[in-house]
């Protein structure tokens, strides 16, 4: 699969991911990808999941999870992480 995707550096990938987030209709203020790693052919994004003071999910948690899933789907088809 790597033959069909383009190598990209971590910061460039995070920049593109955050641009996608900010322009997405489900964007929530403060939503941001702060890290990414390659798991096989899938890019896994991380960031604040808006947990409450007891580290339990909030209403925003599902939106963030879905956004990171969307990023994984869209960007894994285009890129692989170049370390």
UniProtKB/TrEMBL annotation:
Domain of life: Bacteria
Protein name: Protein yciN
Classification via InterPro entries: DUF2498 (IPR019633), YciN_sf (IPR038191)
Pfam families per the UniProt record, alphabetical: DUF2498 (PF10692)
Cross-referenced Gene3D superfamilies: Protein of unknown function (DUF2498)
